[in-house]
Amino acid sequence: MATTTAATGTSVPVTATQLSSSTTAATVTTPTSTSPAVVPTPPTLTSITTPHVPIPHRGVNYRGKLVLAPMVRSGELPSRLLALHYGADLVWGPETVDHSLIGATRRINPRNNMIEYTRQPSHANSPAAGYSETVIYRLDPTREKNRLVFQLGTSDPDRAVAAARFVAPDVAGIDVNAGCPKPFSISGGMGAALLRTPEKLAGILEALVREIPPAFGIGISVKIRLLETAPETEALVRRLVRTGITGLTIHCRTTPMRPRERAIRGQLRMVREVCHEAGVACLMNGDVEGRDQADGLVAEFGVDGAMIATAAEKNPSCFRGAAAGGMAPWQDAVTRYLRYAMEAENKLSNTKYLLGQMIPGKAPQYRIVQAARSYVAFAQAMGQEGEEEAMRMARETDRVLGLGEFEVKPEPKGKQKNKQKQQQQQPQQNVEKKRKREDEEEASGEPAKRVADALEAVPVPAPPTAASVAV
Questions:
Q1: What is the predicted pLDDT for the residue at 410?
Q2: Which residues, in sequence order, are CB contacts of 359 under 8 Å at separation 6+?
Q3: Band of the pLDDT at 377, cuts 50, 70, 90?
Q4: Rounded CA gap, 471 and 468, in Å?
Q5: How wide is the angle at C-alpha 13 spanned by C-alphas 9 and 16, nearest 5°?
Q6: Is 275 annotated in the active site?
Q7: 107 forms bridges with which residues in the sheet?
Q8: For residue 424, is pLDDT > 60?
Q9: What residue ranges of the chain are covered by domains with CATH 3.20.20.70?
Q10: Among residues 180, 275, 282, 318, which one is catalytic?
Q11: 3-state class (DSSP) for residue 469
């Protein structure tokens, strides 16, 4: 508790929060004063001023934001567009490993103007091998402008910088994944494996902060998990906030914990305090289920924002608060998601996975969608047969992706292998058949007989007569 002194010298109590430089003055009179005393009015959450790491000119400030979490299958472009439609302030894309970006190609899809990062599949030895390019990341430069954060999987500072340089012109921020517990990530020293090598993680962040903000004007952030003890977590966070990052997201679970286990929030205030001391924005993640709940958690723990994962996978309208209409019926969310998937030419398997998450398992549409093999079938499952525009889009998407009536079905693998084997063996079989025929003919005297027959067939000229002799 601090005090402020009125004109008469009387002390008026003022809380530490009220001493914030962002508060506005109000005039009040104390019981013993003979002149008005000036004391600050209580500030709002958004008016509290703390030291801030400078936000680059193209970067985003994570404070006051409710955002979509990075998810491997549920963070593709259609899901991000749906989250933004329902009120997400920012969206994280799925973790993308640095190796896949180095040597990739950036192109603009002429049909929808989406930006795509592509590369040749690893099993294609040459352009003549018959394999088309694989889209490894897709973004919408219009609807995601200034709102897309690219999450990078990396374990090496140089590769991290090279990959970040490739994507930086198209995104609003680069976030390093230091929390993913899945084997594909930690086996390469990425994700949660970096929590055990804090100096390596700090080195990656420092390299990115040194190279990317000055050149591209966007900030660097990191997403981590809790360590086993509060002192370990505190030591890690204190090291990371000194690297120059603009934001830190704390997933309130330890590495071994699964999503079904309740989030642990006992260390959250400590993490927030360490971040705020360094001027770094602090976002919380773990069991955040909607905007209204997120507002309550932000107020309770004093963090700067929150990140939604699982709830957004089920129904992204969770980003919409009750005052704005609340949760939308799943049918509405699915119909809009399907439209975004067709606009993006999204891979059929990814669309089917998300529809399976959003459609209740007992709904009749669920089983139909699971058996579908085209966008036309998806649209029909959602009762859109009579909607000309929806069916036109579905059919065009099928044409582009080679689905449904446009699918070119390959021969069965066994039949294809037998055909290739026969083609390889055919020349040798022809030679062997010719030799066998020649051997049989020689053994049976067939060649000599054919020669004799041929000679008999040749006409023999008649002997000349006396009359025909030339005189």
A1: 72
A2: 330, 334, 365, 366, 369
A3: very high
A4: 9
A5: 125
A6: no
A7: 116
A8: yes
A9: 65-327
A10: 180
A11: coil
